Amino acid sequence: MSDHGRQSFTDKATAAIKPDSEKSTTEHFGDKIKGKSDSAASTLQPQSEKSTTQQVGDAFSSNSNETKPSLAEKAKNAVGLGDK
């Protein structure tokens, strides 16, 4: 379970699994807004206040505000579903 004020892990997984080619413009826009909002919340929330599951979730989604691809993005790219 994600921490209060953070995007749920289910929403993140659903957005990551669905190929970009099958998403509408509205879905692309919504994913981008939710991602930026969750990234900001990740930055503002001190590491010491994050639950263990949130820390793991942030590591999986690469929510550390770095330009490195997340594990989910790497997996999508590996099977040809990513942007790159």
TrEMBL record:
Residues 1-84 are annotated as: Disordered. Residues 39-68 have a biased composition (Polar residues). Signal peptide: none annotated. Coiled coil: none annotated. It comes from the Eukaryota. Gene3D superfamilies: 6.10.250.2440. This is Heat shock protein 9/12. It comes from Polyporus arcularius HHB13444. Residues 19-37, 71-84 have a biased composition (Basic and acidic residues). It holds the Pfam family HSP9_HSP12.
